[in-house]
What does this fold into?
Amino acid sequence: MTVVATWNVNSIKVRLPLVLDWLERAAPDFLFLQETKCPTEAFPGDPFRERGYQAAVAGQKAYNGVAILSKTPLADIRTDLPGDADDAQARYLEATTEGGVRLACLYAPNGNPVESEKFPCKLAWMDRLAARARAHLDEGRPLVMGGDFNIIPEDRDVYDPQAVSADALIQPQSRARWRTLLNLGLVDAFRACHADAIAYSFWDYQGGAWPRNQGMRIDHILLSPDLADRLADAGIDRSPRGADKASDHTPVWCRFRDGAR
DNA sequence: ATGCCAGGTAACACCTGA
It folds into this structure.
């Protein structure tokens, strides 16, 4: 069994104790991290190595930052999303597992406010992501694309669609980009396992969103069809969100059966 | 309409997030 998880930690330095605790409890084979908020060379690799995880890192000062933790060696690490003219933002990281699976860890632009230049930049970034996914799928490569997509796929994936109707995360244009990824053949691991579930991966720090369960499902794991065939289970672990000094996001995970079937 | 909270940077306030 192989477990892959993704977690926007909102500062790896502040969240390190929670991440180490979760690694011990959940024991994922791969953990994608977003918003590490520290330069590549400042990533705290030692505590992960001591627990059997190596890290591939794409970081920058203060903002963004992504990483992949792995129990097994990673190869062919890339830190840019092709076609990205402005790759100054550390939002994307790819690596290949020993089993030949391409892993893509992403932190998509938020895109707010919608009236600003940030929204078209978000949409353009998603277009580049789709092009990258298509390239991998065209090569027949098994692909796990996981991270903070900053998109609410459907109305049921947010506590109140009306309350966030002006948000970039729920705009029809954003959802069209999400569906483009699905239309390529990628499978939403959580939704594939829980067709009718209402579950969130993010709750704002403000306004008592967590105790009121006013959340949204914006962190996702997309799978190429061959990997989706092997999908055994998926879930969202709410427990880290209730901890002291919690991130505003919580881990999303999925588990595979080994080998072909 | 605004701030509500949290983190980082820089500096005792401002930016970003979603």
About this structure: The helical segments of chain A are 12-26, 45-49, 118-138, 172-183, 189-193, 225-229. Residues 10-11, 13-14, 35, 37-38, 61-63, 110-112, 150, 164, 167-169, 202, 204-209, 216, 218, 245, 247-248 of chain A lie near DNA strand B (CB under 10 Å from a C1').
